[in-house]
Amino acid sequence: MVDDTRSYSAQVRQRGQLTIPRKLRESLRIEDGDTLTFMPMGETLVLVPRRLRAPELIDRLATMLEDSDQSLADLLIDLPRIREALYNERYAAGQGE
User: Fold this and answer.
1) Would residue 58 count as lying in a domain?
2) Is residue 73 within 8 Å of 64, Cβ to Cβ?
3) What is the domain count for the chain?
4) 38-43 long-range CB contacts below 8 Å, 24 or more apart?
5) HSE (side-chain half, CA atoms, 13 Å) at 36
6) Over the chain, what is the mean pLDDT?
7) How many CB atoms are located within 10 Å of the residue 47 CB?
8) Which residue has the higher pLDDT, 68 or 6?
9) Consecutive H or E run containing 58
10) Is residue 3 part of a domain?
11) 7, part of any domain
């Protein structure tokens, strides 16, 4: 799995095609012919490389949201703070040495 928090970009081409950056394909072992699942979550799009797990994960997420009385928006609002904390934990901790 990719063990950094940087983002990767891909431009949508003719007929809606896009190229997944090589580093991500290699890290996630995505090969020619693999099926990917797109899961829209508000204004966020999640790309799941293993199609068979996606329905299970969607059901689990829906159950968790129902049980907690939270919306997806509630979870996503904290995403930048969580990402920054993870980044600082991984990379900023060793800078003072």
Assistant:
1) yes
2) no
3) 1
4) 41/72, 41/76, 42/72, 42/73, 42/76
5) 18
6) 80
7) 15
8) 68
9) helix 54-68
10) no
11) no
Between CA 36 and CA 24 the distance in angstroms is 13
CB 10 within 8 A of CB 20: yes
CA–CA gap between residue 21 and residue 68 (Å, rounded): 36
- Domain range enclosing 51: 14-92
pLDDT at site 16: 92
Q: Please state the length of the chain.
A: 97
Question: In degrees rounded to 5, what are phi and psi of residue 37?
Answer: -115, 130
Structure tokens at 65: 């949201």
Residue 9 lies in a domain: no
Note whether 62 and 93 are within 8 A (CB): no
Closest CA to 47 of 58, 37, 61, 33: 37
Task: Give the tokens for residue 4.
Answer: 């950094």
Query: Nearest CA to 6 among 74, 76, 91?
Result: 91
